[in-house]
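FAQ: What does the model actually see?

It sees only this:
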Amino acid sequence: MAKTCILIGAPVDTGQKRAGSLMGPAAYRVAGLAEAITALGHGVEDMGDVTPAPRAPMPHPNPAVHHLAETVAWTEALTEAGIAAALRGFPVFMGGDHSLSLGSVAGMAAHAAAVGRPLFVLWLDAHTDFHTPLTTVSGNLHGTPVAYIAGREGFDDFPPFPHPVPGQRIGMLGIRSVDPEEGAALLPTEIDIADMRVLDERGIRAPLAEFLDRVRAENGLLHVSLDVDFLDPAIAPAVGTTVPGGATFREAHLVMELLHESGLVSSLDLVELNPFLDDRGRTAKLMVDLVGSLMGRKVFDRPTRSY
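And it is asked to produce this:
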């Protein structure tokens, strides 16, 4: 079924310390994201880049935390942008580092509550992002969104998350880098974590299918958050948080094709693309290609590449 994709630029790079991801939205536009979507019969509305309201600096008891005020401002602005976009179509948040998901998923949670349906979240990432501002050692707030989404304490400076998502409605694929504190905090939750050991043993299809079955059974809305570092750095080098052993080209496209066939996805994050680290737009083009698979392109439709 044809969708109207609402592109929302989120040029955020304050959630970590390596500059460059603020260029992500422009890179997606140059790489032809809108054209790839329209070629598959969907509509596209590009809302431009979100501009958060300025905020005065905010102190925090954890001295490692940086850019707190900016991150709170982005969270507020992207929540509002997401709510507005969800009323008109299929929001696609173009980042920007993963701290943008503090706002994008909050917006989708508010929308899901408004339409009376449960929200599910699929986290495609090398990291669990389950720190809070109180527990992070690096101070990088791009490592906190899932904790915020799940309702962990420690986010007093942020707007209250609308309707925290229960653990059984959060699924993670591709995890391969977890800090000890995050691991301990995740143990008592019901978050479904398919790390690379699970994917090596079971393949990528089975755990994804099981998660999608739960979404379908509850008539849920599904938000997918795709981090560049979900992919192996050999095929996607343009990210500041590379972890070896990620999803292959074939695995990533299979995930996207299965998501398309499910018909369950209602919103999407594209995060952590740092064009400054890319090789002639290689990673941006791959991410656009993956969105094509999510929107209905089949493997036999792919053109031959010159590299």
